[in-house]
Write a structure and sequence with these properties.
With about 80 residues, this protein is mostly beta strands. It has one domain. Helices cover about 0% and strands about 45% of the residues. It has no helices and 4 strands. The termini are far apart.
């Protein structure tokens, strides 16, 4: 009889990659966040795989943990 080795699947974290453009509007600095890709941690936890759909002209990429938006219809 085989042992049950089913373990819960590890939670896969997803990261979003952005380029952030600062601009002036009515005398105030505002920020435009454009999503340009996604990232996933490697299994060994020592790095990431980034999948980019664009490359920012200034070379700066901001990577943030993906936070799903709650469905407003559920409230």
């Amino acid at each position: 009889m085989a042992k049950n080795t089913n373990k819960p699947a590890p939670e896969i974290k997803r990261f979003n990659a952005y380029t952030v453009r600062d601009f002036e509007r009515n005398g105030a600095t505002e920020h435009d966040w454009m999503r340009i890709g996604v990232g996933f941690p490697n299994e060994d936890g020592k790095g990431f795989n980034l999948i980019l759909h664009a490359v920012p002209v200034d070379g700066k990429i901001v990577v943030r943990l993906h936070e799903p938006k709650e469905d407003a219809a559920q409230e």
